[in-house]
Specification:
The protein has one domain: HUPs (Rossmann fold), CATH 3.40.50.620. It has a five-stranded parallel β-sheet with strand order 3-2-1-4-5, with helices on both faces. The protein is α/β, with parallel strands linked by helices. Helix 1 links the parallel strand 1 and strand 2.
Length: about 160
């Protein structure tokens, strides 16, 4: 009778994932994917680790003498950050949470904050809800991947 080579039974290896200790920047715009990104990052953080949640009111100006804003914010950055704080709930108690409201080009600002904070990760959602900003500015996630000074995680 020929020998059979059946795979040996495997047992799952239970290893605790290492917690993220370095500063992490999360771009939060209130969208569903940004909410998942925020929760994922907060849950992966070590106790007392620094989490910077950045909400950017997208701004783009027309050019010329009579320059005017081409985008009007649907909601202020400070209001978006309050949504983020409520969404984190008890997760916020064990980390050092910083809420940063800014205005401008979201991708450029997220990259700048990550650089200034010497972040180990920059976490963003795969797609925001602001269609006009996406059309005028392009994909924030794509631009962040190209320009970030650290690892980038895109959460869908």
């Amino acid at each position: 009778m020929p020998a059979t080579t059946e795979p040996a039974p495997t047992r799952p290896i239970h290893r605790e994932q290492p917690a993220i200790t370095g500063p992490v920047v999360v771009g939060f715009d209130g969208s569903a994917s940004a909410g998942r990104a925020l929760e994922f990052a907060a849950a992966a953080m070590a106790d007392s680790a620094r989490l910077l949640v950045v909400a950017v009111e997208p701004q783009i100006q027309s050019r010329g003498l009579l320059a005017e804003p081409l985008l009007r914010p649907r909601i202020e950055a400070a209001e978006v950050l309050e949504v983020a704080r409520r969404r984190l709930g008890s997760l916020a108690e064990r980390i050092r949470l910083e809420m940063i409201p800014l205005a401008g080009d979201p991708a450029a600002i997220l990259v700048e904050v990550a650089r200034d904070a010497r972040a180990t990760f920059l976490v963003v959602g795969g797609r925001g809800d602001d269609f006009e900003a996406r059309v005028l500015l392009g994909s924030v996630a794509e631009r962040v991947v190209q320009d970030a000074p650290c690892n980038v995680l895109i959460v869908r």
